[in-house]
Amino acid sequence: MLKALEIAGFKSFADRTRFDFPDGITVVVGPNGSGKSNIVDAIKWVLGSQSAKSLRGKEMADVIFKGSQSRGPAGSAEATIVFDNSEGNLPIEAPEVHVTRRVFRSGEGEYLINNQPCRLKDIKSLIAGTGIGIDAYSLIEQGKVDRMLQANAKDRRVIFEEAAGISRFKAKKVEAERRLARVDQNLVRLGDIVDEVA
Ligand code: ATP
């Protein structure tokens, strides 16, 4: 379902670079320090990673290309993940879904879904239940297999619920319950007003 990744000004990738992930397994090879892990960092970053440390930096602006001997630093970093949605797995009516994150040196940033500005929350709810999220199981990093095997039953259940697509509905249920509580409060307030007026 992950079709491509496009990055520009992100870590060691100063120029706009596109990685296509055709069906099957993609292997990224290269010498130490050539930027292999930066590709995974870009995917985590688009999916909303908020911690600079998890992206192996000190602060968020560290993801912006900081310049090299031959060229100056970039003013912004951006990454776009392209999902193939021809089977309609994502709840958006488009054959391809582009999810973009951009950050400027000023610290300002934005998220976009198919070029429309959105909140991180929208991206999270878009991919919930697909197994793609930063805390999900698609990105398996060093040590994660061990952690999964050693996880207690409750934590392991969370992984299976994500795989089964249940977590999307759980998140919706929480949201609906929150809305219901708000409606209840409004009803009480309305009752008070009616009492006052009557
Ligand atoms: P290894 O096999 O050693 O893990 P790797 O191929 O995974 O290496 P990465 O860790 O992805 O390499 O890349 C690290 C490189 O990215 C370093 O050379 C580092 O200088 C560069 N880099 C990281 N952040 C930036 C930045 N903001 N601007 C420019 N270069 C950066």
TrEMBL record:
Full-sequence range covered: 1 to 198 of 1198
Binding site for ATP: 31-38
Annotated function: Required for chromosome condensation and partitioning.
Record's protein name: Chromosome partition protein Smc
Complex formation: Homodimer.
Location of this chain's protein in the cell: Cytoplasm
Domain text: Contains large globular domains required for ATP hydrolysis at each terminus and a third globular domain forming a flexible hinge near the middle of the molecule. These domains are separated by coiled-coil structures.
Superkingdom of origin organism: Bacteria
Family: Belongs to the SMC family.
